């Protein structure tokens, strides 16, 4: 077990050239590899800088990089244009598409007793450790798992073994891990590196992944004072230490404790990154602990055109809507379709305000009937973006004609909370 790179502070600002050099230095410490698989995120994690690092790995290994498997989980496969945008210069023939419903292998099972314990008695099922066939049967001598550590609604802090066991995982593994996080309580998990979902994945890693040549490359990304992105840290290793080091830095970089509960928040969703409410509801997850009772959350979503990235999940969201935890648990108990897709049920819980604050979605590509049909308030994108212009609002507090508006330019980069909602 080794840590090959650990660079970063809250004030570090690595250039992509420096990051590539650090990656090359770390890869040199690993030794020669001739059959390499890269597992980066997809376009929904564009700002992770994983695209540039994957390209740096290709420059380092050349023909030794045999395949790239974006860890899309349940997301829509990347288009050629997205590949070119995120991974410029990488040949398209290197890319493989992960199918979370069919293209997986079950390596083993975490027993129901462990899940029962971690869920505090709420869930009584085993958890299958599932991965894409390329991970377990591809014959690679290095699996380079690349991604960003940042506060996350399902796993507390994103990445590490989640990139493998969920990002390239299977239907049951994804569904049950998400449902565990939702039932345990999202606000008890976000921003915490250790939690029940991580405990399950760590147990699976110890039992079922140790024989695989996985090396993790973890970034921490924040914002400069001018609003631009800054690569604050790069951590690389073959065990949990690189993740925990990155998570420690991420909390310093990506977590903001607000002085007073926010009464009105406006969140902008970059159209290159956010195409669905499945992803765009990070605007809800990441702000909910900062919002006052009765607050208004306005989501500006010029690129959002669907609810679920997966057609089946999209249909379930449209059918059941974001109605709160009791309604969703009832739906799971009484309907086979949502009971068979627990990941969708978890998402419906995560993205509900539970009646505590209002959520106004302003998508350019979904209608009023569609938005109101799933339980959100609707706002016209053109009208709302003209009033709350994302190009003119500063990150954080703004005084807009006497109104205090808290603006967030990308919810995927952080977690916001008020002390009153932290346990």
Describe the 3D structure:
There is one protein chain. With 423 residues, this protein is of the alpha/beta class. Helices cover 36% and strands 24% of the residues. It has a 6-stranded mixed β-sheet, sandwiched between helices. Strands 15-14-13-12-17-16 form a 6-stranded mixed β-sheet. The longest helix is centred in the N-terminal third of the chain and has 15 residues, at 16-30. The relative contact order is 0.13.
Quick summary:
It contains 18 helices and 18 strands.
Model regions low in confidence, pLDDT < 50 over at least 5 residues = none
Average pLDDT number: 95
Anisotropy-based shape = globular
Give the number of helices: 18
Strand content: 15-25%
The profile of the biggest β sheet is: 6 strands, mixed
- Structural class based on helices, strands and sheet pairing: alpha/beta
Note the gap between the termini: 34 Å
- Could you tell me the number of beta strands? 18
């Amino acid at each position: 077990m080794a840590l090959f790179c650990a660079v970063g502070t809250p004030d570090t600002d690595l250039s992509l050239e420096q990051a590539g050099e650090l990656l090359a230095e770390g890869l040199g410490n690993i030794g020669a590899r001739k059959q390499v698989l890269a597992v980066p995120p997809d376009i929904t994690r564009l700002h992770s800088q994983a695209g540039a690092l994957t390209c740096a790995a290709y420059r380092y290994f050349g023909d030794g990089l045999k395949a790239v498997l974006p860890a899309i989980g349940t997301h829509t496969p990347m288009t050629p244009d997205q590949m070119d945008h995120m991974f410029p210069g990488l040949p398209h023939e290197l890319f493989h598409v992960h199918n979370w419903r069919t293209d997986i292998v079950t390596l083993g099972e975490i027993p129901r007793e462990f899940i029962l314990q971690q869920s505090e008695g709420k869930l009584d099922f085993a958890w299958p450790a599932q991965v894409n066939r390329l991970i377990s049967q591809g014959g690679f001598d290095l699996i380079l798992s690349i991604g960003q550590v940042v506060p996350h609604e399902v796993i507390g802090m994103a990445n590490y073994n989640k990139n493998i066991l969920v990002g390239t995982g299977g239907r049951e593994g994804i569904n049950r891990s998400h449902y565990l996080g939702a039932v345990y309580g999202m606000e008890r998990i976000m921003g915490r590196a250790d939690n029940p979902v991580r405990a399950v994945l760590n147990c699976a890693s110890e039992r079922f992944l140790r024989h695989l040549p996985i090396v993790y490359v973890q970034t921490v990304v924040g914002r400069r004072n001018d609003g631009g992105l800054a690569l604050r840290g790069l951590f690389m290793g073959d065990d949990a230490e690189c993740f925990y080091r990155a998570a420690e830095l991420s909390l310093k970089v990506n977590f903001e404790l607000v002085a007073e509960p926010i009464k009105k928040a406006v969140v902008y969703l970059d159209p290159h990154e956010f195409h669905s409410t499945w992803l765009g509801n990070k605007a809800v997850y990441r702000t909910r602990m900062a919002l006052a009772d009765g607050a208004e959350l306005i989501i500006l979503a010029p690129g959002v055109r669907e609810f679920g990235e997966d057609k089946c999940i999209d249909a379930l969201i449209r059918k059941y809507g974001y109605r709160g935890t009791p309604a969703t648990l009832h739906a799971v108990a009484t309907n086979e379709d949502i009971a068979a897709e627990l990941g969708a049920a978890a998402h419906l819980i995560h993205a509900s305000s539970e009646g505590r604050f209002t959520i106004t979605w302003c998508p350019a590509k979904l209608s009023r009937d569609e938005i109101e049909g799933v339980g959100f308030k609707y706002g016209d994108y053109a009208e709302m973006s003209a009033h709350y212009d994302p190009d003119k609002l500063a990150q954080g507090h703004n005084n807009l004609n006497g109104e205090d508006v808290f603006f967030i330019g990308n919810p995927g980069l952080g977690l916001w909370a008020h002390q009153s909602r932290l346990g």
